[in-house]
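Input.
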Amino acid sequence: MTINIIDPHLHLFARSRGDYHWLKSENPPFWPDKSLIQQDFSIDDLSKCLALTGNIKLRGFVHIEAGFDNTKPWRELEYLGSLAFANLTIEGLPHPKSRTIASIDLLAQPEHFQRTLHKLQQYLSLIGVRHILDEHAYSILSNQNVQQNFASLNQVTDFIFELQLPLADEDSNKVMPLLIQTITNNDQLRFIINHAGFPPKSASTNTDTDEWHLWQNHISELAKYPNVFIKCSGWEMTDRQYQMSWFSAVTSFCISEFSIERVMLASNFPLCLLGRGLGKKLANEVGNKSYADYWQDILGSNLIKQCSENEKSALLYDNALKVYQL
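Output.
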């Protein structure tokens, strides 16, 4: 049976064209396995890789900014727009449907922010923006410029802000009131939690920990707001050797709180190659078959096996199609 997927969180690298400051060995993050992703990655690679499976079809994707040039974020959109996908054919279509999430500096002066936003809006693929909050979430969200800039985003029709921050660390309790206020003040803007809010890896063996309960409480609180959605991906960011039982536990809880209609499964490619030994295949010149292996692991999980066909389609395809307007 053919499985159609839309991958709503992946990154393409063209190192000779962009800056990619974070990918360079001399810059953070200082991961010991960083060399595995210090190369170019194209959408052609992914589709050819999935073709080897015979049953998984990539029908669309959302490109999340990858640090191409964060001082001039439109350059990444220009690069992506220049890709003709000339050699890629999927069931007679010239290329998969795609959308882009651009980088933007929330801390910029509002006038400069609005000029950048206006320039980004000239690109038809644009559906939203991202400023990674991570451990700086409190200082960013408490900044007056940031709140003015969120108000500008809220005025854009059917727009998305990708929300990346940990929901289980010691600062998250302090961040949550600011985050909830931001979400309620900008109820026309869709907030999409990246990487399931970085659930604690201890959940793979023990879900009765303070960190796990803290993450659960914050997920439950955010799920109350209809303009908030969640993407389950980035497992390798928390635990390089994560177990699929952990994936199932985290995703099941997200579904229970957000409902099946507001949860999406994604890859975080190529960073997913850093998890579960998938990068070893890449290093051994097996190529990007490891991307297919990632999706095969997802499809073979207990969570997916227990889903109805409609539920499976929602998680893998339908929700991303609707939320990102593909």
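Residues 244-258 form the longest helix (15 residues).
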